[in-house]
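Hi L., both proteins are below.
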Amino acid sequence: MVTAQDAFDYMAKVFKKEEAKAYKKTIVITYNVAGPGGGTWQATIENGEFKVQPGETISPVTATVNYIDAECFYKLVTGEMNGIKGYATGKIKFKGSPSVLQTVGKLFPGKKKAGLI
Protein backbone atom coordinates (compact mmCIF):
# COMPACT_ATOMS: atom_id res chain seq x y z
CA MET A 1 0.00 0.00 0.00
CA VAL A 2 1.35 3.40 -0.93
CA THR A 3 0.85 6.38 1.35
CA ALA A 4 0.72 10.12 0.90
CA GLN A 5 4.16 10.20 2.52
CA ASP A 6 5.47 8.04 -0.35
CA ALA A 7 4.19 10.68 -2.79
CA PHE A 8 5.84 13.51 -0.85
CA ASP A 9 9.11 11.55 -0.65
CA TYR A 10 9.02 11.16 -4.44
CA MET A 11 8.29 14.87 -4.87
CA ALA A 12 11.26 15.81 -2.69
CA LYS A 13 13.51 13.47 -4.70
CA VAL A 14 12.68 14.97 -8.12
CA PHE A 15 12.02 18.62 -7.14
CA LYS A 16 13.56 21.07 -9.63
CA LYS A 17 15.04 23.54 -7.17
CA GLU A 18 16.68 25.81 -9.74
CA GLU A 19 13.45 26.21 -11.71
CA ALA A 20 11.52 26.88 -8.50
CA LYS A 21 13.75 29.87 -7.77
CA ALA A 22 12.04 31.65 -10.67
CA TYR A 23 8.81 31.90 -8.66
CA LYS A 24 8.72 35.21 -6.84
CA LYS A 25 5.64 34.50 -4.75
CA THR A 26 5.21 31.91 -2.04
CA ILE A 27 3.04 29.00 -3.18
CA VAL A 28 1.10 27.04 -0.56
CA ILE A 29 -0.83 23.96 -1.59
CA THR A 30 -3.05 22.00 0.77
CA TYR A 31 -3.29 18.29 -0.01
CA ASN A 32 -6.26 16.35 1.36
CA VAL A 33 -5.81 12.63 0.75
CA ALA A 34 -8.73 10.39 1.76
CA GLY A 35 -8.51 6.85 3.10
CA PRO A 36 -5.75 4.73 4.61
CA GLY A 37 -2.31 6.30 4.27
CA GLY A 38 -3.90 9.68 3.64
CA GLY A 39 -4.37 12.83 5.68
CA THR A 40 -3.95 16.57 5.27
CA TRP A 41 -0.65 18.27 4.48
CA GLN A 42 0.57 21.59 3.22
CA ALA A 43 3.44 22.02 0.80
CA THR A 44 5.25 25.32 0.46
CA ILE A 45 7.42 26.41 -2.43
CA GLU A 46 9.40 29.51 -1.59
CA ASN A 47 12.84 30.79 -2.63
CA GLY A 48 13.58 27.55 -4.48
CA GLU A 49 12.75 25.36 -1.47
CA PHE A 50 10.07 22.68 -1.14
CA LYS A 51 8.75 21.94 2.34
CA VAL A 52 5.90 19.72 3.50
CA GLN A 53 4.20 19.68 6.89
CA PRO A 54 1.20 17.81 8.25
CA GLY A 55 -1.99 19.69 8.97
CA GLU A 56 -3.45 22.90 7.66
CA THR A 57 -1.86 25.83 9.47
CA ILE A 58 -0.44 28.08 6.73
CA SER A 59 -2.48 30.79 5.07
CA PRO A 60 -3.17 32.13 2.60
CA VAL A 61 -3.44 28.94 0.56
CA THR A 62 -2.75 29.18 -3.17
CA ALA A 63 -4.63 25.97 -4.03
CA THR A 64 -6.25 22.96 -2.37
CA VAL A 65 -6.23 19.53 -3.97
CA ASN A 66 -8.41 16.63 -2.81
CA TYR A 67 -7.60 13.02 -3.76
CA ILE A 68 -9.83 9.97 -3.36
CA ASP A 69 -6.91 7.98 -1.93
CA ALA A 70 -3.14 7.81 -1.49
CA GLU A 71 -2.68 5.61 -4.57
CA CYS A 72 -4.33 8.25 -6.76
CA PHE A 73 -2.07 10.95 -5.26
CA TYR A 74 1.04 8.83 -5.78
CA LYS A 75 0.12 7.99 -9.38
CA LEU A 76 -0.49 11.64 -10.17
CA VAL A 77 2.84 12.91 -8.80
CA THR A 78 4.84 10.10 -10.43
CA GLY A 79 3.23 10.66 -13.81
CA GLU A 80 1.44 7.31 -13.88
CA MET A 81 -1.90 9.16 -14.04
CA ASN A 82 -2.80 12.25 -16.02
CA GLY A 83 -4.21 15.09 -13.91
CA ILE A 84 -6.90 15.97 -16.44
CA LYS A 85 -8.12 12.36 -16.50
CA GLY A 86 -8.06 12.24 -12.70
CA TYR A 87 -10.14 15.41 -12.54
CA ALA A 88 -12.56 14.26 -15.24
CA THR A 89 -13.18 10.94 -13.46
CA GLY A 90 -13.69 12.59 -10.06
CA LYS A 91 -10.55 11.13 -8.48
CA ILE A 92 -9.08 14.62 -8.02
CA LYS A 93 -10.84 17.85 -7.10
CA PHE A 94 -9.22 21.22 -6.57
CA LYS A 95 -9.83 24.79 -5.55
CA GLY A 96 -7.61 27.54 -6.85
CA SER A 97 -5.95 28.36 -10.13
CA PRO A 98 -5.49 25.39 -12.49
CA SER A 99 -2.59 27.23 -14.13
CA VAL A 100 -0.73 27.42 -10.79
CA LEU A 101 -1.19 23.68 -10.31
CA GLN A 102 0.04 22.97 -13.84
CA THR A 103 3.05 25.24 -13.36
CA VAL A 104 3.91 23.67 -10.00
CA GLY A 105 3.46 20.22 -11.51
CA LYS A 106 6.37 20.95 -13.85
CA LEU A 107 8.65 21.23 -10.81
CA PHE A 108 8.00 17.55 -10.03
CA PRO A 109 8.64 15.47 -13.16
CA GLY A 110 7.10 12.02 -13.53
CA LYS A 111 9.29 8.95 -13.33
CA LYS A 112 9.98 8.85 -17.07
CA LYS A 113 11.00 12.53 -17.28
CA ALA A 114 13.03 12.21 -14.08
CA GLY A 115 14.94 9.27 -15.59
CA LEU A 116 13.70 6.84 -12.96
CA ILE A 117 12.28 4.24 -15.38
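That was the first. Here is the second:
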Amino acid sequence: MGMEGPLPTHETLVLGIGNLLWADEGFGVRVLQALDSRYHFPEQVRLMDGGTQGLFLLPYVQAAEALLILDAIDFGLEPGTLHSVEGEAVPQYGAAKKMSMHQTGFHEVLAAARLTGRLPQRMALIGVQPECIEDFGGGLRPRVAARIPEAVARALAVLETWSIRWQERSV
Protein backbone atom coordinates (compact mmCIF):
# COMPACT_ATOMS: atom_id res chain seq x y z
CA MET A 1 0.00 0.00 0.00
CA GLY A 2 3.03 2.28 -0.19
CA MET A 3 5.11 3.85 -2.91
CA GLU A 4 7.88 1.27 -2.87
CA GLY A 5 8.78 -0.80 -5.90
CA PRO A 6 9.11 -0.06 -9.60
CA LEU A 7 6.39 1.67 -11.56
CA PRO A 8 4.43 -0.97 -13.47
CA THR A 9 2.46 0.16 -16.48
CA HIS A 10 -1.11 -0.73 -17.49
CA GLU A 11 -2.20 -0.98 -13.93
CA THR A 12 -5.21 0.15 -11.98
CA LEU A 13 -4.30 2.62 -9.29
CA VAL A 14 -6.63 2.99 -6.30
CA LEU A 15 -5.48 6.14 -4.60
CA GLY A 16 -6.56 7.28 -1.14
CA ILE A 17 -5.86 10.98 -0.70
CA GLY A 18 -5.92 13.07 2.45
CA ASN A 19 -4.32 13.73 5.78
CA LEU A 20 -5.31 11.43 8.63
CA LEU A 21 -4.35 14.12 11.15
CA TRP A 22 -7.03 16.57 10.00
CA ALA A 23 -10.42 15.07 10.92
CA ASP A 24 -12.58 14.29 7.86
CA GLU A 25 -9.76 14.95 5.41
CA GLY A 26 -8.53 11.44 6.21
CA PHE A 27 -11.62 9.82 4.64
CA GLY A 28 -9.97 8.67 1.40
CA VAL A 29 -7.10 7.00 3.22
CA ARG A 30 -9.52 5.31 5.65
CA VAL A 31 -11.56 3.89 2.74
CA LEU A 32 -8.33 2.63 1.15
CA GLN A 33 -7.35 0.96 4.44
CA ALA A 34 -10.77 -0.71 4.64
CA LEU A 35 -10.38 -2.05 1.08
CA ASP A 36 -6.90 -3.33 1.82
CA SER A 37 -7.87 -5.02 5.08
CA ARG A 38 -10.93 -6.81 3.65
CA TYR A 39 -10.02 -7.66 0.06
CA HIS A 40 -7.15 -9.12 -1.93
CA PHE A 41 -6.72 -7.69 -5.43
CA PRO A 42 -4.84 -8.99 -8.49
CA GLU A 43 -1.23 -7.97 -9.01
CA GLN A 44 -2.07 -5.27 -11.58
CA VAL A 45 -4.11 -3.37 -8.98
CA ARG A 46 -2.06 -1.01 -6.80
CA LEU A 47 -3.60 0.36 -3.61
CA MET A 48 -1.73 3.50 -2.60
CA ASP A 49 -1.96 5.85 0.34
CA GLY A 50 -1.31 9.11 -1.52
CA GLY A 51 -1.57 11.17 1.64
CA THR A 52 -0.80 14.79 0.80
CA GLN A 53 2.10 14.09 -1.55
CA GLY A 54 0.75 16.14 -4.45
CA LEU A 55 3.03 16.17 -7.49
CA PHE A 56 5.12 13.28 -6.14
CA LEU A 57 2.14 11.13 -7.20
CA LEU A 58 2.44 12.20 -10.87
CA PRO A 59 4.55 9.24 -12.10
CA TYR A 60 2.11 6.77 -10.53
CA VAL A 61 -0.87 8.48 -12.15
CA GLN A 62 0.93 8.62 -15.51
CA ALA A 63 1.75 4.90 -15.32
CA ALA A 64 -1.86 3.92 -14.58
CA GLU A 65 -4.32 2.80 -17.20
CA ALA A 66 -7.20 3.25 -14.74
CA LEU A 67 -7.39 5.52 -11.70
CA LEU A 68 -9.84 5.39 -8.80
CA ILE A 69 -9.52 8.32 -6.38
CA LEU A 70 -10.90 8.23 -2.83
CA ASP A 71 -11.02 11.64 -1.15
CA ALA A 72 -12.87 14.21 0.95
CA ILE A 73 -13.97 17.05 -1.31
CA ASP A 74 -16.06 20.15 -0.77
CA PHE A 75 -18.88 19.49 -3.23
CA GLY A 76 -21.11 22.00 -1.45
CA LEU A 77 -23.39 19.18 -0.28
CA GLU A 78 -24.74 18.07 3.09
CA PRO A 79 -21.85 16.80 5.29
CA GLY A 80 -21.42 13.05 5.00
CA THR A 81 -22.86 12.92 1.46
CA LEU A 82 -21.03 10.56 -0.87
CA HIS A 83 -20.60 11.72 -4.45
CA SER A 84 -19.15 9.70 -7.34
CA VAL A 85 -17.79 11.07 -10.61
CA GLU A 86 -16.45 9.17 -13.61
CA GLY A 87 -14.52 9.83 -16.81
CA GLU A 88 -13.73 13.33 -18.02
CA ALA A 89 -15.60 14.90 -15.10
CA VAL A 90 -12.94 13.65 -12.65
CA PRO A 91 -10.27 16.31 -13.40
CA GLN A 92 -12.91 19.04 -12.95
CA TYR A 93 -13.74 17.81 -9.46
CA GLY A 94 -10.05 17.65 -8.68
CA ALA A 95 -10.16 21.42 -8.96
CA ALA A 96 -13.11 21.70 -6.58
CA LYS A 97 -12.85 24.23 -3.78
CA LYS A 98 -9.75 23.59 -1.72
CA MET A 99 -10.80 23.10 1.85
CA SER A 100 -7.60 24.26 3.54
CA MET A 101 -3.95 25.13 3.09
CA HIS A 102 -2.83 21.61 4.00
CA GLN A 103 -5.00 19.89 1.43
CA THR A 104 -3.11 18.26 -1.38
CA GLY A 105 -3.39 19.96 -4.76
CA PHE A 106 -4.27 16.75 -6.53
CA HIS A 107 -5.92 18.54 -9.44
CA GLU A 108 -2.42 19.77 -10.38
CA VAL A 109 -1.37 16.12 -10.70
CA LEU A 110 -4.25 15.41 -13.09
CA ALA A 111 -3.53 18.60 -15.05
CA ALA A 112 0.15 17.66 -15.39
CA ALA A 113 -0.76 14.12 -16.49
CA ARG A 114 -3.10 15.60 -19.12
CA LEU A 115 -0.39 18.01 -20.34
CA THR A 116 2.06 15.13 -20.77
CA GLY A 117 -0.58 13.11 -22.65
CA ARG A 118 -0.56 10.42 -19.96
CA LEU A 119 -3.89 10.83 -18.19
CA PRO A 120 -5.36 7.41 -17.32
CA GLN A 121 -7.87 6.13 -19.87
CA ARG A 122 -10.42 5.32 -17.17
CA MET A 123 -10.99 7.48 -14.11
CA ALA A 124 -13.42 7.57 -11.23
CA LEU A 125 -13.61 9.53 -8.00
CA ILE A 126 -15.54 8.63 -4.87
CA GLY A 127 -15.67 11.55 -2.51
CA VAL A 128 -17.38 12.52 0.70
CA GLN A 129 -18.51 15.96 1.75
CA PRO A 130 -16.56 16.61 4.97
CA GLU A 131 -18.20 17.93 8.09
CA CYS A 132 -15.00 19.16 9.74
CA ILE A 133 -11.37 19.29 8.75
CA GLU A 134 -10.01 22.03 11.01
CA ASP A 135 -9.43 19.70 13.93
CA PHE A 136 -5.80 18.64 14.11
CA GLY A 137 -5.56 15.19 15.63
CA GLY A 138 -9.33 14.69 15.43
CA GLY A 139 -10.71 11.57 13.79
CA LEU A 140 -13.47 11.26 11.22
CA ARG A 141 -16.78 12.72 12.33
CA PRO A 142 -19.43 10.01 12.92
CA ARG A 143 -21.56 10.78 9.86
CA VAL A 144 -18.48 10.79 7.61
CA ALA A 145 -17.04 7.60 9.16
CA ALA A 146 -20.45 5.95 8.68
CA ARG A 147 -20.02 6.33 4.90
CA ILE A 148 -16.89 4.16 4.69
CA PRO A 149 -18.81 0.89 4.01
CA GLU A 150 -20.81 2.50 1.20
CA ALA A 151 -17.65 4.05 -0.26
CA VAL A 152 -15.99 0.61 -0.19
CA ALA A 153 -19.03 -0.88 -1.98
CA ARG A 154 -18.92 1.89 -4.59
CA ALA A 155 -15.19 1.34 -5.12
CA LEU A 156 -15.75 -2.40 -5.65
CA ALA A 157 -18.57 -1.62 -8.10
CA VAL A 158 -16.29 0.68 -10.12
CA LEU A 159 -13.53 -1.93 -10.17
CA GLU A 160 -16.05 -4.54 -11.30
CA THR A 161 -17.06 -2.36 -14.27
CA TRP A 162 -13.34 -2.26 -15.11
CA SER A 163 -13.31 -6.11 -15.11
CA ILE A 164 -11.24 -6.34 -11.95
CA ARG A 165 -11.93 -9.25 -9.64
CA TRP A 166 -11.00 -9.49 -5.97
CA GLN A 167 -11.25 -11.98 -3.15
CA GLU A 168 -12.38 -11.40 0.40
CA ARG A 169 -9.61 -11.91 2.90
CA SER A 170 -10.28 -14.56 5.51
CA VAL A 171 -10.77 -12.93 8.88
